[in-house]
Structures are given as structure tokens and as C-alpha cells.
Amino acid sequence: MPFEIVRNDITNMRVDAIVNAASRYPRVNAGVDSAIHKKAGPALLEARKEIGYIQPGSAAITPAFNLDAEYVIHASTPTWTNGLHRESQLLRQAYDMCLDLAAKNNCDSIAFPLLASGNHGFPKAKALQIAISAFSDFLMEHEMQIYLVVFGKESLKLSEKLVRSVQSFIDENYVDAYEQETYGGFGNTRRRGRYAARKAMEPLEDYEEVCCAPSVCDSAPLSLDEFVKQKDAGFTETLLELIQKSGQKNSTIYKKANISKQHFSKIINDPNAKPSKQTAIALALALELDLDATRDLIGRAGFALTNSSTFDLIIRYFIEHKQFNVIEINIALYEFDQILLGSV
Question: Cα separations (Å) of 204 from 25, 184, 198, 201, 209?
């Protein structure tokens, strides 16, 4: 996956570039800055002194010395006051400059902490949204592996409103799934009463006419060969047709789906490809398919969306709310301890 969330110590990441939440002055702050300097060794501070002051919203690059990386990119981020002093714009600038420096130095991989969410006091939900936006935009134009490195779930924070909304959606649909399994879809007397009333209004004659029409009931059964010949188009064929209808390039689709070019190529070059459920759904989201079209596409790879799966319900929630950003959805999946989209 071009974007991944990793629970780790950022100083242990084996990548081309590690982003440091640096002081704007050539000194070592607490937190991530201190940990990076400690592992890199004293040469990192000497290199940082040569750079001097870094304006908030900017970044600079140095060698990584004793770290398992080629470079350290020192990001200077704004301190949160009340959101009225261009804090969000400056934080976005810092992300953009870090990514630009990585690209200019031919980096294939980069690891970020959640910038400004610690000592600089940025609300975590807002800091996360800015990171998602920066990563999403960059990955639409570049090929690079981006890691967002956190110590634990508490380091990432979706908006409380979104979390509550997703949780409520899950709870409601879990209840429906439970009642369907337990009571055949009629979880209480009122529901059973509504069902009986609906059944009483149904025209049974039409049903009998369709089922018992000679053309249906009296026809000879098909042979196995004839059944097999009636199979629908497979996942790859359907995917390529949908991409063509969308008018988008293949590269746009796999980037929006958060899957690598190599992985995507394997799928489209194999008519019998069976991608993972996470990949199939990611491609449906990249195409911004509605719920029925998503079910049809992933069904051709042998998968379904059900009300008995937290993962499936989260996917349904975002599709029904017409929110298709895979990176943002992956943050929600991470919040609920689910496997991420785009994973093989």
C-alpha cells in the first residue's frame, strides 16, 4: 500500500527519509525530536546547526547518520493557538515541503509522525485531517511509500462526530443483523405485525403465475456445460469496463485505491485475477461506486458486504455517505481495529 499506518517507534523505521518534528531553532526538543537525535548521534545536531532557523511551515533536509534511513527531514510546524493565525495552512505547507524534499532527493519511502499534535498543541483530529489531505494529494501525482507512524491508537484521533456516527451506524445494523438471524428479520411484536400486514397485501396470484408458468416450470434442466457457459464477466473484465466508463486513467484509479502500480498491473493483466476483499473494495471506492455497484464488483471476486461484520459496515457507512477517500477510510478502519484497504 502506498499509504500505511504503522504502530512503531519512528526511529526504528527502515525508510529513505524520516520526518522529524523539529524545533524551529537548532536545538533539541522533547518527544520525537529528542528520540531522533539520540539515535542519529551528535552529528545530526551539528548538521541542524548549519541550517539555522527554520520558518514555521517549512522544512530542511540533512543526512540521517546513525538512523536506518538516508535522510532526516526537519519539519518546523506552527503552534496551535485558536486556529485564527493560519495554523492549518502552515501545517499543510510543512507536510507539502517534506514530501517535495523527499521527491527531489529520489526517496521511495518516507515516515512521518503526526506533526504538530504533541508539543505544539494541534487538535489531533485537525492535525490528522491535514495529514490525510496532504498524503492524498501527493500520492495522486507521485509514486512513494508513505508511513504514518504512531505509538498507539490514541495518537490518531478522528473527529468525535465521525466516530460517534460510524459507531451508531454499526450498532444499528448489528441489531438488524442479529434480529434477522434470531427472529428471521422480525425482532419484536411490532415488526412481526408490520410483516403480517404487508404479507396480507401481497398478490400471491402473480407469484404463482411466474413460478408455475410452463416456460419456466416445464423447461428441460440445463446441462453442467450449459450452466458454466452462462457465467458473468469476471472481476478484471468488469473492473476494466468500469474504468473505461469513468473516463479516468488506470493510474488515477490505483492511486485513489491506495494500491501499488505493480499490484494493480497483476490484476488487470490476469482475466482470472482474484484480489483480496480489501483490494476489491478499494478499487470500488476509487471508482466511487454506489452500494449496489460495489456489491456487484466485489461479488465477481467472490466477496460480499454483510451486516455481521464491523469492517463491512464501516465500508457501507462511507459509501452511503458518498465519502470515497481510501486514506480517510483507512484511518476509520484503524480506529475500529480493522484490516486496512489496499492490503493484499
Answer: 80, 21, 12, 9, 9
Active-site residue list: 33
Cα 253 to Cα 193, 250, 272, 334, distances in angstroms: 47, 5, 20, 22
- SS3 assignment for 224-271: HHHHHHCCCCCHHHHHHHHHHHHCCCHHHHHHHCCCCHHHHHHHHCCC
pLDDT tens by residue, 211-240? 444 444 455 666 655 544 555 789 999 999
Please indicate, yes or no, whether the overall pTM of this predicted structure exceeds 0.70.
yes
Q: Rounded to an integer, what distance in angstroms lies between the CA atom of residue 146 and that of residue 3?
A: 5
Most confident of the following: 217-226, 236-245, 335-344? 236-245
- Under DSSP, the state recorded for 223 is P
Separation CA 319–CA 305 (nearest Å)? 12
Amino acid residing at 265: S
340: exposed, middle or buried (Cβ count in 10 Å: 0-12, 13-18, 19+): buried
Q: DSSP letter at 214?
A: H
What kind and span of H or E run contains 327? Answer: helix 326-335
Q: Which residues, in sequence order, are bridge partners of residue 110?
A: 17, 146
